[in-house]
Amino acid sequence: MTLSNRIAALAALGQLVRNFSDEEKEQLYYKAAAHNSWFTRENVLLALDGISRYLDEEKLKQWLSRYDLPDENPAPKKVGVVMAGNIPLVGFHDFLSVLVTGHILYAKLSSQDPALLPFLANELCEIEPAFRKQINFADKLTGMDAMIATGSDNSSRYFEYYFSKLPHIIRKNRSSCAVLDGSESTDELFRLGLDITQYFGLGCRNVSKLFVPENYNFSPLLDALEPYNSLRNHHKYVNNYDYNKSIYLVNRVAHLDNGFLMLKEDQAFVSPISVVYYEHYSSKEELQEKLNSQAAKIQCVVGHEDGQINFGTAQEPELWDYADGVDTLEFLTQL
Prior knowledge:
The chain is of the alpha/beta class. The protein folds into two domains: about 5-175, Aldehyde Dehydrogenase, Chain A, domain 1 (3-Layer(aba) Sandwich); about 175-300, Aldehyde Dehydrogenase, Chain A, domain 2 (3-Layer(aba) Sandwich), CATH 3.40.309.10. About 40% of the residues lie in helices and about 15% in strands. The chain has helices spanning about 5-20, 20-35, 40-55, 55-65, 90-100, 115-125, 155-160, 185-195, 220-225, 235-250, 285-295, 330-335, and strands spanning about 80, 105-110, 135, 145-150, 170, 175-180, 205-215, 255, 260-265, 275-280, 300. The strands form two sheets. A six-stranded mixed beta sheet has the order 8-9-10-7-6-11. It has a five-stranded parallel beta sheet with strand order 3-2-1-4-5, sandwiched between helices. Strand 1, helix 5 (about 90-100) and strand 2 form a beta-alpha-beta unit. Helix 1 (about 5-20) runs antiparallel to helix 3 (about 40-55) and helix 1 (about 5-20) packs across helix 6. The protein is globular and about 60 Å long.
């Protein structure tokens, strides 16, 4: 199968996803929610929308133009991919990267998200049957030529040991943060709410930490976040909120609370569900030094400065916005 064939088939899959009927979307949601109650209808549709934006023919060509890809892969490799399941279809970019480079995918799905990717893979194979030789789902990954694995800091140590003799990409825990300077508009603060609350804050691109100037007034932020109070309607989320709130109250831990989200001053980057940490900074230089020292733990930074992404776009990465800053396509083209 040629590169142009692969691009055309993937673009056709994107068109198919964009044109899913309400009934098809509902069926997909029920498939996902049966395995993971964090996968709400809204979050499954949000993930599908992101994938449909990936699978645009011009965007695919723009992405791939940066690499020296042969029209046909003369020596496809078996690439094992251990996928996470924290948000719906979080492993799709790795799935796409392996296929578009002409390698053979062996995917180990997360038990938290075992239905969505096989469904899309089957739809892709209906569009282009040649992909059936490239796509495999397996419980055990043995005999691989290369590995891509995403997990926690603990599991990454296992991956590093187990796959040490193979070319590999091993991803660890990361989180994202936002830098506020006090000049943010009400709309920007509202859109920051998307960065915080989409997928219940479970993604590595979700903002779990705020950096704010000294004497920052949190009232406009808390007011701007009020439209997201529907989070209280989700039983697992509200259980986390109630638990964390009770801990803070019993231990007399200072925090701000708007009834569904808490802000707590803390130097850590990864906050519990329903909590966003914040930390004051006294100068941009001091803040940049802090961000540089924690770069290996930060997925993206939302804010006004150069190199930071716009408010409300944390969960809208482009094809070339690689997880952990590791160029997956470059890795695959060098196999």
